[in-house]
Specification:
This protein is 74% helix and 0% strand. The chain is mainly α. It has two domains: 1-86, no CATH class; 89-145, no CATH class. The longest helix is centred in the middle third of the chain and has 26 residues, at 59-84.
């Protein structure tokens, strides 16, 4: 639980720091160091775990790596850092809550996974919560008593 809370704190701090100190930088200049640090951390974890450094043999594995590297990391973070220049950190932070809804949608469409009442309710709650947070002012959310 502490790791989950700390990851949210770190993500929030990174967003605020990037908004404050990285406004003049190109999104690629903000993205490259993060990708380098991430790759070194993953390589280190792989070596510590005893997995070593091996190159995949299957084409499907390379396809997955290419997708995750290009669409899931480079493009995604370039868009994120570009949006950070014009959106508020608070508004942009809501992107992370859409990940489960997108995963459910993709599983439903491409993997023929069942959509249950509980998961549909969760998606509706996500959409309603973000809509409420982005369309009301703090005063409307906490009226004077």
């Amino acid at each position: 639980m502490l790791a989950i809370v700390m990851s949210a704190v770190c993500a929030a701090a990174a967003g605020v720091a990037t908004k404050r100190h990285g406004a003049a930088l190109h999104p690629a200049a903000l993205n490259a160091p993060a990708m380098l640090v991430g790759s070194v951390a993953l390589l280190t974890a792989s070596l510590v775990a005893g997995d070593g450094f091996t190159v995949p043999r299957e084409a499907s594995t390379w396809g997955a790596i290419a997708y995750l590297a290009i669409a899931g990391s480079v493009v995604t973070f370039l868009i994120y850092f570009k949006l950070l220049k014009t959106w508020s950190v608070t508004s942009l932070s809501f992107i992370s809550v859409f990940t489960p809804a997108v995963a459910l949608f993709l599983g439903f469409v491409f993997l023929e996974e069942r959509l249950t009442l509980l998961t549909a309710t969760g998606v509706v709650l996500i959409l309603a919560g973000v809509t409420f947070a982005l369309t009301t002012t703090p005063r409307e959310r906490h009226p004077a008593r």
